[in-house]
Amino acid sequence: MTAWDGDKLITALVDHGINCEDINYVISTHGHSDHIGCNYLFPKATHIVGFCISQKDRYFHHDFKSGKEYRINDKITIIPTPGHTLQDVTVIINSGKGTIAITGDLFEREDDLSNCNIWKSAGSDSEELQVMNRLKILQLADYIIPGHGAMFKTDKYK
């Protein structure tokens, strides 16, 4: 969300019985302003923004560039999926309902599977990598939460 969406985000968290102090990790799939604007609301959290990991003024090295995954716990893993930007990551969640991929703008919305102009017009630092990683996520996930649309099932795209 953008820096102007803070109140909306706080309200949504409260509606679920959560406050900003409860958040341990903030994961932004990439560093564009419409995806990192409310990160300031979570000063206690570890922040993962694309390939960068930090907490307050400490930065941590992780080799996303070589394809290495970052595991938060046995259900949540961050994997590198460059394309939209060269430092994109996807959050993989293994839930009781299947594997969910939070992809950011690797997928703009479900419609971009039938119309590639949608994701291409949003910008792509590497269309070749983006196509490769989109296919990878489609095979890996049961559900995708794209950067600008509703969650969708992947079964009809496999």
From TrEMBL:
Q: What is its main location?
A: cytoplasm
Report the superkingdom from the record: Eukaryota
Q: Enumerate the Gene Ontology biological process terms.
A: RNA 3'-end processing
| Protein's cellular compartments | Cytoplasm, Cytosol
Q: Name one GO cellular component term.
A: cytosol
Annotated transmembrane regions: none
So what does this one do?
A: Endoribonuclease that catalyzes the hydrolysis of histone-coding pre-mRNA 3'-end. Involved in histone pre-mRNA processing during the S-phase of the cell cycle, which is required for entering/progressing through S-phase. Cleaves histone pre-mRNA at a major and a minor cleavage site after the 5'-ACCCA-3' and the 5'-ACCCACA-3' sequence, respectively, and located downstream of the stem-loop. May require the presence of the HDE element located at the histone pre-RNA 3'-end to avoid non-specific cleavage.
Subunit structure, interactors included: Homodimer.
Which protein are we looking at? Metallo-beta-lactamase domain-containing protein 1
Organism equals: Asbolus verrucosus
Its ancestry begins with: Eukaryota, Metazoa, Ecdysozoa, Arthropoda, Hexapoda
